[in-house]
Amino acid sequence: MSDHFDADDPRTDITDLYVFPATRGDRSVFVLCTNPEASSRAVNFDPAVSYELKIDADGDSIPDVAFHVLFATDEGNSPATVYRATGVAAQGTGPVGDPVITQARVSVDHEVHIAEAASYRFFAGLRSDPHFKDVEGFRNGFRFTGHDPVADRNVFGIVLEVPNESLGTGGEIRLWARTMGDVHGEVVQFDQAGRPGINNAINLDEADNAAFCKSSPADQRGAFGDKFAGFLRSIGYDEARATDLGRSLLPDWLVYDPNEPSEYPNGRRLTDDTADVLLALLTRGALTSDGVGPHTDLLAEFPYLGVPRPDRLPQATES
Question: Taking the CB of residue 159, how many other CB atoms lie within 10 A of it?
């Protein structure tokens, strides 16, 4: 239950988004995983792209706070800068707002370089993919074997720890991620993600899948509400339930209240079994487990993501 392989360039492909309380008090952690083909043999990010976390603090689908991560191109280690924007600037893209982390070194292989400034901590680098799922079982009529091919895969992980006061509210927020860049002189959105697995699980039509990547929360109920309800009807939900479920899955964001117990759907921890949530949805509760559990290589402390797995050949058919 992830959004692996739904963008054209793996470097701009958001695979998963997580948010949960930090091990230090009154702080939260954002984990943005990108590039399902990440490898120690390649540069796993695009230095021309803005990797962005958008926060809606008042429920109007418009960002009130944003964190943007950009990588420099003028030095060999491509240091990262993290910007925090508020107000109207939070709706923008690229290097807007105030830098809260500067000259952060990108980690490769098993390195862990952590940048700290004031109440912020940051990491970016090659890591093992924390998502877990019996991919083939989902494709093979829900005949599960307990095999998790994702456990052998790496991603490019961006991890940011922030003080809760920087989230723009004392309570619930709505969070999503997007990747933005220039194409022939026009700034475009390459991918966006919030809830785990929404796009690849429901938008089976290739055109719908691509359009969803370029959509924003403010537009999604209008553009995709009927399509989501139609898909749910096609797998056996009645009209009323399909409509209600479809609306509950949109907009595509994570809801998170740092004052409440953290477990999906309040945020998303690295160990939350969202594949089982998907399975229950797709089988109308008939099946509730794919037999796969969280990865055992996760770290107990920042940056939480496990050490990279050995490089493997890309398998662009997985999702």
Answer: 21
Other Cβ atoms closer than 10 A to 275: 26
Q: pLDDT for 57-86, tens place per residue?
A: 999 999 999 999 999 975 557 799 999 999
- Cβ burial of 35 (10 Å; 0-12, 13-18, 19+) is buried
Q: Is the dihedral of CA 161, 163, 164, 166 positive or negative?
A: negative
Give just the sign of the alpha carbon dihedral 45, 50, 55, 61: negative
**Token duo for residue 188:** 């475009």
Q: Cβ–Cβ contacts within 10 Å for residue 20, how many?
A: 22
Question: CA-based Rg of the chain, rounded to a whole angstrom?
Answer: 18
Cα dihedral sign, 182-187-190-191: positive
Cis peptide before 265 (omega within 30 of 0): yes
According to DSSP, the β-strands at 186-193 and 27-34 are unpaired
Per-residue pLDDT at 3: 66
Number of residues assigned to the chain: 319
- The pLDDT tens digits for 240-294 are 999 999 999 999 999 999 999 999 999 999 999 999 999 999 999 999 999 999 9
For residue 300, what pLDDT is reported? Answer: 97
Q: Do residues 179 and 70 touch, judged by C-beta distance below 8 A?
A: no
- CA 182/CA 162 separation, integer angstroms: 28
